[in-house]
Design a protein that fits this description.
It contains nine helices and 22 strands. The chain is of the alpha/beta class. The chain folds into two domains: 53 residues, no CATH class; 261 residues, TIM Barrel (Alpha-Beta Barrel). Strands 18-17-16-15-14-13-11-10-22 form a nine-stranded mixed sheet. It has a three-stranded antiparallel sheet with strand order 2-8-7, with no helix packed on it. Strands 3-4-5 form a three-stranded antiparallel sheet, with no helix packed on it. The radius of gyration is 20 Å and the shape is globular.
Length: 361
């Protein structure tokens, strides 16, 4: 479970405990890595140094970019606004299909080429008129302490924090982490334990627990993404089961995004997801009662747009990441019928569009 590493600069953490004279256990995520001196966990950025678990990626990033918030994807959280996005290196899952594998599977600290303190990031977000910052590209669970400090620095400037995560985290650190977050998109990778075990090297149950926790016990705005992989998690019965679970455990108003897979990392022999698969999944999820279902990574203006579940009229027009007609009143209600659309909306949408802007410190 652990990977040998050389000593390097690091910061102390506290989600761990000693299990023997020579071993400690990391308690951040359900992987519970057992570490001896000089070893790293599977995530690679947390390891045993000086008899404690330390974080080796604090203050270091693989890069910063300003994206449209819809790219996270979040369709009901400050639509049209720019978000300063960044990640570090490593991951606490081992998904064979990872589409950010150059960062999430990196075992080289040289990947973390940019140095930025939390205050520097908050200042950059403010200078670039970003309404939020997003921890993305790799899972912020593993740079827990850094993400929390960045979120606090941003909050002090009125900038919100977004977590893009697989939700594979233990209850204690999860509560501490999401206390500082304003929105989250959780990657529900499939709806079977066998998929998580075979393809991701993890487990489904902790992810479902995180989803229920976020929806029922926090004020964090929640959306969900499922990457549909041909022949692995795209069958009608599995999509029906996933959709029913969301309705029964979270309610019909949590937005669900179905995203298209492209061959990458260790699944190069798997074909891309046909657009028809995403449209089929969207229809199944809507039939099961989910009000807001979206398609991603394909050109599908109907699947990109937001439709009022009460009257059926389009209330937010989208084409890729560009917004068109806006039919919400200043209180986030449908202009056609007055139904309240769940989300975090402002009187007017942003106009960032589909721009992508690199930021260097």
């Amino acid at each position: 479970m652990a990977i040998q590493s050389d000593r390097s600069d690091s910061v102390p953490t506290y989600w761990w405990h000693r299990i023997s004279e020579n071993k400690i256990q990391c308690d951040l995520c359900p992987r519970f890595c057992h570490l001896s001196e000089g070893q790293r966990g599977l995530c690679f950025v947390r390891g045993c140094e000086g008899g404690e678990v330390r974080l080796f990626s604090y203050g270091r990033s693989s890069g910063f970019c300003i994206d449209p918030i819809e790219k996270k994807p979040l369709n009901h959280f400050l639509p049209g606004t720019p978000v300063l996005s960044f990640g570090t290196a490593g991951c606490n899952l081992a998904c064979r299909f990872c589409q950010n594998w150059d960062m999430s599977k990196s075992r080289e600290m040289d990947t973390l080429s940019q140095i930025a303190t939390p205050e520097m990031i908050a200042e950059a977000a403010e200078q670039h008129h970003c309404r939020s910052i997003a921890f993305t590209y790799n899972d912020p669970v593993i740079f827990h302490e850094y993400a929390i400090d960045v979120a606090k620095a941003c909050r002090a400037r009125g900038i919100r924090a977004v977590a893009v995560s697989a939700g594979y985290v233990c209850p204690g650190p999860r509560e501490e982490f999401y206390r500082e977050m304003d929105a989250a998109n959780i990657d529900l990778k499939a709806f079977s334990e066998s998929f998580y075990q075979r393809i991701c090297g993890g487990a489904l149950a902790p992810v479902l627990d995180t989803l229920e926790y976020l929806h029922h016990e926090t004020q964090v705005w929640l959306e969900i993404t499922t990457l549909l992989i041909p022949g692995h998690n795209d069958s009608n019965p599995e999509i029906e089961q996933l959709s029913r679970w969301i309705v029964e455990h979270l309610g019909p108003d949590v937005p669900l995004h179905f995203s298209a897979f492209h061959p990458d990392w260790k699944m190069l022999d798997t074909p891309p997801t046909p657009p028809a698969t995403l449209r089929r999944a969207r229809e199944i999820a809507r039939q099961q009662g989910i009000h807001f279902v979206y398609t991603g990574n394909v050109h599908d203006p109907e699947g990109d747009s937001t439709w009022c579940p009460a009257c059926g009229k389009r209330v937010i027009e989208r084409d890729w990441y560009r917004l068109g007609a806006w039919e919400l009143d200043p209180e986030g209600r449908c202009r056609h019928c007055g139904a309240k659309i769940p989300g975090v909306f402002e009187a007017r949408p942003g106009n960032w569009g589909s721009q992508r802007q690199l930021v260097r410190f």
